[in-house]
Amino acid sequence: MSALLQQRLAWLRSHNADKALLGIRRGLEKEGLRVDPQGRLSHQGHPQALGSALTHGAITTDYSEALMEFITPAYDSPEQVMHYMEQLHRFAYQHLQDEVVWAGSMPCYLAGEDDIPVAQYGESNIGRMKSIYREGLAYRYGKVMQTIAGIHYNFSFPDSFWTIYQQMTGIEGSTREVRSEGYFRLIRNFRRHFWLLLYLFGASPAVSSSFLKRNSFGLDVWDDRTLVAPAGTTLRMSDIGYSNNAQSSLNICYNQLDSYVQSLSHAMHTPYPAYTHIGVKVEGEYRQLNTNILQIENEYYSEIRPKRTTRRAEKPLDALRERGVEYIEVRCLDINPFLPIGIDARQMRFMDAFLVFCLLVDDGDIDRLECERLAYNRKLVVREGRNPELRLVGEDGMISVASAGQRMLDQIMQVAQVLDEQYGGTAHMDAVVQESAKLLDPSLTPSAQVLRELQACGCSYEEWMLQQSRQQREYFQQLPVDQQMQASLVQQSQQSLQQQRELEEQDKMGLDEFLQHYFVN
């Protein structure tokens, strides 16, 4: 076990400071494709009864008009998050008619680029800007990869914790500076260790053959409609999806807030020849927001992001620069098709222990050589993670997935014990024990279970996932209704439509002028 981790856990206990961990908050953002009864991508607009996708805080859309996104507030307990997310699905299903929400991360059958409707956000300048940004993604990466769905895990420590953290570490600076430095320590260690999350929770070893124009990634043919990585964990996180030459050339630095902001800002102000060739406004129609490597901050695909709630009309990078990191967003989690909302309270408790571990364990800046090693290990786990012969590249040589993972879990268990001492019971330690079993027996992983189910039913990926989606629809429709929350969601939906109308009425400048002003300031 890390000596520094031991020292810090002991310090927290001896100073009665571990109580601050009770203030940890977590929330979810969960994406899901709307599909028709035959499992084809919906071409219906976002249901008006669900409010405005532009202004609703809990139900919106991501890339496609058919790609719904459900967002919870941050809560003190996983059970509160689960309840809110379940009720969001319950509410949505009241207005989806015969459609279902796709239960997996990799998409349903796709009939090509023209089969995927880009999300629309009304006639306000900011709404049109969001759609133009998505058109830019289509030109840059293609629409197909934008249909991949996932779960984002938002996590934060209470403000009181950072005062304790400063006393424990001796870091100098304001609370804002200490908090940002702490979150970037967490992020650096997350990037070192998140391969374990891909192994434990990866649930996308199969994909519809319609996703790929040609099988140039060496996937095995399961049947005439399905491709698989037999020992793979998460094709969602592989190079068959989020792969792009422009972004792969970036060297976004996660060592400190200033370097992170600077490197992202550079990408947002550096033209890229291939994007220049696409053009910005052609024959009166916008193709993209600009010709830079990144149109806006969110275009950068990463497994974790530092986040700060923005004020009206404020850019995310400006918010980070001015007020520092507020929370982190974990973006590498697959939707587990065996769970109604794709994740459960046990996994959330494991995530909490894992993220506290990432903050407290040994740390140092990540140099280019280590960054390359981490990227190499990630690719191995994504494509061959359940291969018992697989070896990762460690600091001291080659090491098996099971050995490397168990070393980490032994340390995460110590963090889980501290959390359980505060929360009561053994739920965090139980979660770690359950995940440890997956290292000893890869057949227990969600990725292995998916392939086992495909084998048992003799189904294609599309057929089996549609079955799971229908079962989940029945689950949500039979849930007891939280009348107070459902009434609140009706009100939010109505208010969001009014807010969109007000935005459209308040615009005082044309779109061209608005975009020019947005990117100059």
From TrEMBL:
<protein>
    <recommendedName>
        <fullName>Glutamate--cysteine ligase</fullName>
        <ecNumber>6.3.2.2</ecNumber>
    </recommendedName>
</protein>
<keyword id="KW-0547">Nucleotide-binding</keyword>
<keyword id="KW-0436">Ligase</keyword>
<dbReference type="Pfam" id="PF04262">
    <property type="entry name" value="Glu_cys_ligase"/>
</dbReference>
<dbReference type="InterPro" id="IPR007370">
    <property type="entry name" value="Glu_cys_ligase"/>
</dbReference>
<dbReference type="GO" id="GO:0016874">
    <property type="term" value="F:ligase activity"/>
</dbReference>
<dbReference type="InterPro" id="IPR006334">
    <property type="entry name" value="Glut_cys_ligase"/>
</dbReference>
<keyword id="KW-0317">Glutathione biosynthesis</keyword>
<comment type="similarity">
    <text>Belongs to the glutamate--cysteine ligase type 1 family. Type 1 subfamily.</text>
</comment>
<dbReference type="InterPro" id="IPR014746">
    <property type="entry name" value="Gln_synth/guanido_kin_cat_dom"/>
</dbReference>
<comment type="pathway">
    <text>Sulfur metabolism; glutathione biosynthesis; glutathione from L-cysteine and L-glutamate: step 1/2.</text>
</comment>
<keyword id="KW-0067">ATP-binding</keyword>
<feature type="domain" description="Glutamate--cysteine ligase">
    <location>
        <begin position="9"/>
        <end position="380"/>
    </location>
</feature>
